[in-house]
Amino acid sequence: MKAFSHATFLASSGSPADMPPPGPPEIAFAGRSNVGKSSAINALLGRRRLAFTSKTPGRTQTLNFFELGEGARLVDLPGYGYARVPQALRAQWESLVGSYITARETLVGVVLVMDARHPLTSLDSQLIHFLGGVRLLVLLSKADKLNRAEQATTLKSVKASLQSEVRLFSSVTRQGVDESRDLLEHWFAASRGNKKPPVKGI
User: Fold this and answer.
1) What are the b/e assignments for 163-181, b being 16+ CB within 10 Å?
2) In this structure, what CATH number is given to the domain that contains residue 26?
């Protein structure tokens, strides 16, 4: 199955009522504002601007749904932290994301994108705790900004802190792109066979 090679934009949702009806299995992408989440999505999809990238933190303010081939969806969640937006709008985003994660029956996993230079911030840890038993893949983005020794040290440290899949990732050098895509394809395939990927405790 090559779901990631057939991605098209489906819908943007600013409230739970606006979300597309649950259908095929979904994998959601989360991360701090301006951490490289949209660039990671584009790299995995083999596209340049399907997910909009911006140097302005907090640009993504809605849940953005993408239809993938062979009955699968990808969901780009609003970035958290550092967004220069009113507190009321932040609270609205948090409520929207919380409703999606806790109630979306077709959610089969979450990809958490962290800056490899600053992983496991307090906000990252809060989200991981909130996710509970949701299957998690951590992508350490912008790995090209670190040398090999720094990459190895960071990867070892994050793996020691989390009981989840962790990958070094770079949308520039494509480090970790193919391996991460293969893993997510497996998640989709497992969910179609009514065999959800095994949950790893967090």
Assistant:
1) ebbbbbbbbeeebbbeebb
2) 3.40.50.300
